[in-house]
Structures are given as C-alpha cells and as structure tokens.
Amino acid sequence: MLIYIILGLCVIALIVAIVETRLLRVKHYTIDSQNSNLKKNIKIALISDMHCTVFGKNNKRLIDKIADLNCDFLIVAGDVINGKPDDLSYALDFFKGIKEKGIKTYYFYGNHEQKLSMTDEKSFEDYGSEIRKFVETVNNDTVVLDGITLKGLLIPLKMYRDKISEIEKYFNAVQLVGEFDNDGNYHILVAHDPTFASMYDAVGADLILSGHLHGGIIRIPFLGGVITPRHKLFTGRTRGIYDQGKGKILITSGIGWHAIPLRFCNDPEICMIEIRSSGYEAQIGS
What we know:
Layout: H1 2-20, E1 25-32, E2 42-47, H2 60-67, E3 73-76, H3 88-100, E4 105-107, H4 111-119, H5 121-131, E5 136-137, E6 141-144, E7 148-153, H6 173-177, E8 186-191, E9 207-210, E10 219-220, E11 224-225, E12 240-244, E13 247-251, E14 269-276, E15 283-284
Parallel strand pairs: 1-14, 2-3, 3-4, 4-5, 7-8, 8-9, 9-13
Antiparallel strand pairs: 1-15, 2-14, 6-7, 10-11, 12-13
C-alpha cells in the first residue's frame, strides 16, 4: 500500500512540475538608491533564460504581461535562445512584439547566444544584425541613461564549461567591461551567470542582475534550489536578492526551461524592480 502512495505522490509532483512551466508570475523588488543623479523612481522589468519557451502564440501572453507592468525599460539577461540557427525566428517574434508595445529593451547575451557562434558564425552575426532592429544589445559595453548607467558583461563562453578553479586564469571582468565612473549615477551590471559574483565586485556596481541558474530548477522549502547547470547540489544562491560587494545581486530564476520541461515550487518569473531615489534599505516585495 505504501508503495502505491509514494508512486501516486511522485506522479502528482511530476504533473505539478510540468504544469508549473506554463505559469507566469511577477516578483516585485524595491531597492533604495542614494545616488545623487537619480531624481525619480525607476521601474525596470527583468527576464532571463527564455530558452525558446512560448507563452501563447508568438509569446503574446508574456509580452502582454511585461507591457502591463509599465516599466521604464526591460532588461533581457541572456539565453533567449538555445544556440541553434533556427532560433532566430523565435527571438524576432518576441523582440518585435516588445517593440510594438513601445518598451525600450536592452539585451545582454548569455552562454546560449554565444553557443550559436560555435555552431555557425554567420548565423550568429545574422542573429545580432536582425535582433538590433528591435532592441539594443549591450555586450562588454556601457549605456548611460538619465541617472542610471548600465554595463553588460559578456562572460567568456569557456567560463561556463571549464573547471571553476581555473576561471581566474583567463577571466577579468574589469578588463572586459571596465569600472563604473564616480559620476553620481545608479550603476547596474548585467552578468548572466552569478556563480562568480565576487569577480564582478571590482566593476563597482550598485546592483548586479543575473540569471542562468534557473532557480535550481526544483526548489525545496527552507533548502532552496536543488541543482545548478554545473550539476552542483544546494549551492544556496539560485534565486532572490543578496548582499554583494558594495551593493546587491539579484538572481532571477528565469521564465523558461532547457532540455526537460520541468520546474517545481519555482514558477517562471518576471522581476519588477523599482529603484527608489529616497532612503530606505533594499527590501524584497511579494
């Protein structure tokens, strides 16, 4: 009898995990800024790790949900695609729909965009050329806005594959993207993989935005995310906001899935971040 109960619970859990991949929630964060150039509150929508996942025809459900947030701009923090030439049509459908909604968007590549260059260099170049008709790509580059500076760190692809102990031999964030100026702006660094956040500290961001870890895929109450893309168990920081360097790091669990359509206690999420220009400590919304 016990074995049937266990099997039944396993089946229910599997169904829940599959159904959960079709949900979409908005996770709200409010972060205080003391930076003198930030004269008003700024609302930023953040998504990551789409992996060609579709929410409605041409991603209409996802696009409408982002548009309803009335954000000042959208940050897409990598892995829109799965690294295949045929993925271009998926990305174009999404970014074209976002532009039609009038949402200013900044796109930062992850490891799967870079994988496309290994598959087919021309397809990678065509991908970037077509995408830039609808969004601004920021890879090892800087964008200065009114009161906010964005930097996009294009993490070397081999960083995602090589042994962690060897990363520092070839990876230097400051050399790739530079340091933030002491200009009174609020400084945001987008780096797809948060695993090496301590290596980003020298850039001097007030806020680091990351994804990549998919929230641990399966989340267990009080224990957090179970497994990372490096197949490490219970690493701790896979979703949420944490102290990092002189500021904060926000890790989104993303909205898609890769290889296996599975999430558990880990709804696909759009992060809505409000950077406030008055003085309260960062706090997590519901």
